[in-house]
Amino acid sequence: MDSPLVFQHLAGADRQLRVAVVTETYPPEVNGVAMTTGRLVEGMLRGGHRVQLVRPRQGAADRPASAGGFEEVLSRGLPIPRYNHLRMGLPARGALTRLWSVQRPDVVQVVTEGPLGWSAVSAARKLRLPVVTEFHTNFHSYSDYYGISWLKQPVHAWLRRFHGKGDACLVPTAELAASLTERGVRRVEVVSRGVDIQLFSPGRRSEALRASWGVQPGDLVAVVVGRMAPEKNLGLAVQAFDRLRAVAPHARLLFVGDGPSRAALQAQRPEFLYAGMRGGEDLAAHYASADLFLFPSLTETFGNVVIEALASGLPVVGFDYAAAASYVRDGENGWLAPSGDEAAFLAAAERVAGDAALRAHMAARAPATVVDAGWDGVTRRLLAVLDDVVRAHERRGAGELAA
């Protein structure tokens, strides 16, 4: 039987930090966690740090990459039910323990909370390595959307235990930090998400792309970007669109993304535009070629799409939490409804859609509100937390030796 891990050793010059990053999703997979992790790894490498990336093999032809201070270690994984393009890493505690016994990292950064992530935390603890976890997904909130609300408390307890084993837990907002602290997770640190302001820009707007959608000049296009799944609350976006058509009768609704909810929605509402998965400049053009961003989700830990939309010059209608609470200001670059208040969300969508002058004002101001959210600053913040965790670990070790 094959070993769960395929090792590829890479010797290199000493760096400031040797970071073992363990994640169950990574580019070219398309989702917020994968994109964020990829950007942060790139930033650490640009800063001269060494990164060992541990992730599931994404396909039969997948091979570990190595270059400069970068090394990949591939684990076995299984497709995630209903998301066959994503894989869940299998437990690999013994293999990781052997790997890190020979090639000790300064710190282990565990991105995802699945079996591979749990194995990484366990292996790091056995080897007395400092470990940082990341809280990316409100799994306990998802249960309401999948008819398994009875699992909410057990999942909640499991997440608290998982993140309680680390030296620090990283979250993207102060709001979430306060929530996890109240739940008993110790040392929660805020490391926000970033946006590529060179890629996402109003300059990507394409009249040719709009024409391909059958949109006439001056018609409003509302867009929803992200995974098409029950937890994204897409039904509310549809309600909002139906409501706003009272003031914008020629409006169109565009979905960018894919997922288990797409087929049913497309069968029910074939008049909507379904662009599927997009990436890079193509994704940026889809954002910028729309006129209004609808963000109905209530299960996000952050919501990268919010700041991507703002950078693209789109007013955002969303709920007052996560990224929207941090960046959207009523009447300036969008409109927020109190968290969970669907009637207020519908009213906000209708208000913004029906006032072209207000919408133009918000569109013009939107990019400036995220100009300081570049990835370089986010990476520096992450490295500051990792360095602090390593130093605290060294001080504890020195104290134990002195005793």
From TrEMBL:
Keyword Oxidoreductase: no
GO MF entries: glycosyltransferase activity
Keywords: Transferase
InterPro entries: Glyco_trans_4-like_N, Glycosyltransferase_grp1
Record-linked Pfam families: Glyco_trans_1_4 (PF13692), Glyco_transf_4 (PF13439)
Every Glycosyltransferase subfamily 4-like N-terminal domain range: 30-198
PANTHER family the UniProt entry points to: SULFOQUINOVOSYL TRANSFERASE SQD2
Protein name: Glycosyltransferase family 1 protein
Lineage: Bacteria, Pseudomonadati, Pseudomonadota, Betaproteobacteria, Rhodocyclales
